[in-house]
Design a protein that fits this description.
The structure holds 2 protein chains of 2 kinds. By secondary structure, chain A is mainly α. Chain A has one domain: Helix Hairpins (Orthogonal Bundle). Chain A is elongated. The N and C termini of chain A lie far apart (55 Å). By secondary structure, chain B is an all-alpha fold. Chain B folds into 3 domains: 105 residues, NADH-ubiquinone/plastoquinone oxidoreductase chain 6, subunit NuoJ (Four Helix Bundle (Hemerythrin (Met), subunit A)); 33 residues; 44 residues, no CATH class. In chain B, helix 1 runs antiparallel to helix 2 and helix 2 runs antiparallel to helix 3. The radius of gyration of chain B is 29 Å and the shape is elongated. Classes of the chains: A mainly alpha, B mainly alpha. At the A-B interface, helix 1, helix 2 and helix 3 of A face helix 1, helix 2, helix 3, helix 4 and helix 5 of B.
């Protein structure tokens, strides 16, 4: 086994997360799929840090985690705000501008 | 040169399929809470991967921040928002699912073949020298020297996000909250007097009085508005017919 196998897992997780973003309708599940994609990217960064023998990848993964935490806070606040005015967490319902 | 020991290989071949299966399950399960639990499991698996790859600090941060804080926040919001029609798995845009799956297979195949063909020009080095003084110490040295400016910017971003969440969640009433008296008057002046005296209580008299059993109307049918709409949407509703009293037992005499 070589460390490249972790990259394959990260690629699969990223793809599955992308499908979830497209297919699911619940805004919270869509958001969780975005988190899965971010985590897959982090796994890639950590694996490349190990392959290259420098810690820069780990530092960038650390920054990604902080940005993901910010994103969760703001995103969930947006979902709650939409839910409060629309009584629905479905992403298909928030298309009022189209009609 | 990096050589991977057998325990790590065993760990990888056990946990990697489980992580991929759990993330697939995330897409396929109906309830959002189950998705959240599966995602938490994927995140724990990734934390184990980080620790196995000499990223001890990131592994601990992954557990504390992601499975601890972020997933709890997700579950908290799920409880707040409840369940609604968006949990169903039906397609709203026709043909979206086959297109998404085809695109995903293409994209995944591209990624996998790309990783399979790519070469860095050197073998895997490993972090034994970089982590010489300890992972946390080495990371701290990098973070507070080379990456000190991004670190400051990220702290500003965190404060902005906290402020943004407070602004978004802040809710100012434009009209005064209706008092109990006003609510009662509105009920009686409404279109029908059917619910003027309040909605019926759940439960079947003397047999089962839990909140998940709808009350029985005089004609023997279940009263749909006697149980909470959330329980109905979740499908946690029992049939009240099984608690119906078949025939009245007349043999018991009244005791003086």
């Amino acid at each position: 086994m070589n460390p490249y196998n972790y990259l394959y897992v990260a690629g699969l997780l990223f793809t599955i997360g992308a499908v979830g973003v497209v297919v699911r309708r619940n805004a919270i599940v869509v958001f969780m799929c975005v988190e899965l994609m971010l985590n897959a990217a982090n796994l890639t960064l950590v694996t490349f840090a190990r392959i290259n023998g420098t810690l820069d990848g780990q530092v960038v993964a650390f920054f990604t985690m902080v940005v993901a935490a910010c994103e969760v806070v703001v995103g969930l606040a947006i979902i709650v705000t939409i839910y409060r005015s629309r009584r629905s967490a479905s992403i298909d319902d928030a298309s009022l501008l189209k009609r | 040169m990096l050589t991977i020991q057998t325990p790590e290989a065993v760990m990888f071949w056990v946990l990697a399929p489980v992580a991929v299966l759990a993330s697939l399950g995330m897409l396929l399960v109906k309830k959002a809470v189950h998705s959240a639990l599966l995602l938490a499991w994927v995140m724990i698996t990734l934390a184990i991967f980080y620790i196995a790859q000499d990223a001890l600090f990131l592994g601990i941060v992954q557990i504390v921040v992601y499975t601890g804080a972020v997933m709890m926040l997700f579950l908290f919001i799920l409880m707040l928002v409840g369940v609604d029609a968006s949990d169903s798995l039906t397609e709203t845009i026709p043909g979206l699912r086959p297109i998404a799956i085809t695109a995903a297979v293409g994209f995944g195949g591209l990624l996998v073949s790309l990783i399979g063909r790519a070469t860095l020009g050197h073998g895997a080095v490993g972090l034994d020298t970089a982590n010489g003084a300890g992972n946390v110490q080495a990371l701290a040295k990098l973070l507070f020297s080379t990456y000190v400016w991004p670190f400051e910017v990220v702290s500003a971003l965190l404060i902005t996000a906290a402020l943004g969440a407070m602004v978004l969640a802040h809710h100012q009433r434009t009209v005064a909250r209706p008092t109990q008296r006003e609510q009662a008057i509105a009920r009686f002046r409404g279109e029908s007097l059917g619910s003027a005296a309040g909605l019926p209580n759940p439960g079947v008299f003397a047999r089962h009085n839990a909140v998940d059993v709808p009350a029985l109307l005089p004609d023997g049918t279940a009263a749909p508005n006697s149980i909470s709409a959330t329980l109905k949407a979740r499908g946690d509703m029992l049939d009240s017919a099984q608690f119906e009293l078949g025939e009245v037992d007349n043999t018991v005499t009244e005791e003086k």
